[in-house]
Amino acid sequence: MMKIGIIYCLLPNLLNGAIIYRATDIRIGSAASSPTSQQFVDLDINQDSIIDWRLGTGSSGIYSAVGINAPETTKFIYQAIEEDVAMGREIAPLPKDFLVSEELTEPQFAFLSITDGLGGVLLSSSPSFESNGAFDFDPAYLAFQIEINGNSHFGYALIEEVTASGASISALAWNSEPGSPIRTGAIPEPSASLLSLSAVLLLTLHRWRKAV
C-alpha cells in the first residue's frame, strides 16, 4: 500500500502548468425559479480558501437579475455594446475555442474588473422582457482572470440551461501556468508521461496481487 501511495503523490506533479478542470453542478437563480436554485454562490476557483468571485441574484419585485461580484484582482472579458465602446460594455458570452489570454486580438473585447466594467449582470428579466442580458442564450463561456500568489491565471466557466430566472454553471477550468492562455471548452488531456506512469501503476498492482 505504501508504494501505491507514493505513486499517487507523484501524479499531481506531472500536471504542473496544465489545465485544471472541474465539473460542477451549480444552479443560480431567483428564489422562485425552477428548477430549485441557489441565490448566492461563492466560487473558489483554485480551492485555496480565497473567494475569487461570487454569483448572486437580486430582485426589486418587478425586476430580477443574476450577476457577479468580485474583488479588483479578478477580471472578466467584457465586450463593447453594439460594437461601440463609447456605448459601454457588458460581460461577454464567448463561443467554444475562444483564446483567453493577456492580449485579446479583437478590439471589442477587454479584460476589466467589475468596477471598471460598471457592473456584472449576466441575466435579467422583467414583465416587459422575458429574458435579456448578455447571457440570454446557451451554452456560453464566461472568461476570467484570477490572481494566485501575485500571478495572473486565465480560466473559463461553462454556462448552460439559461432561463429567464437563472442558469447553471456546469464546469470551471483554469491554467495553472501563470500568464498562459486557455481556450474555452479546453479540458485536460493525459500527457505521455502520465500515461506511462499509469501503465507502470497497473503493472505494479498486477504483480503485487499475484505475489499476494
Mean pLDDT: 76
Tally the beta strands: 13
Tally of individual helices: 2
Report the uncertain regions.
1-16
What structural category characterises the helix and strand content?
Answer: mainly beta
Task: Please give a structural write-up.
The structure is a single chain. With 212 residues, this protein is mostly beta strands. The chain has one domain. The chain has 2 helices and 13 strands; from the N terminus they run H-E-E-E-E-E-E-E-E-E-E-E-E-E-H. It has helices at residues 2-10, 192-211, and strands spanning 19-29, 40-43, 53-59, 64-69, 75-81, 84-91, 99-100, 109-112, 121-125, 140-148, 151-160, 166-175, 182-183. A hairpin with a 2-residue loop joins strand 5 (75-81) and strand 6.
Descriptive terms for the model:
212 residues, mainly beta
Compact overview of the structure:
About 15% of the residues lie in helices and about 40% in strands. It is mainly beta and about 210 residues long.
Topology:
Blueprint: H1 2-10, E1 19-29, E2 40-43, E3 53-59, E4 64-69, E5 75-81, E6 84-91, E7 99-100, E8 109-112, E9 121-125, E10 140-148, E11 151-160, E12 166-175, E13 182-183, H2 192-211
Antiparallel strand pairs: 1-12, 2-3, 3-4, 4-9, 5-6, 5-8, 5-10, 7-13, 10-11, 11-12
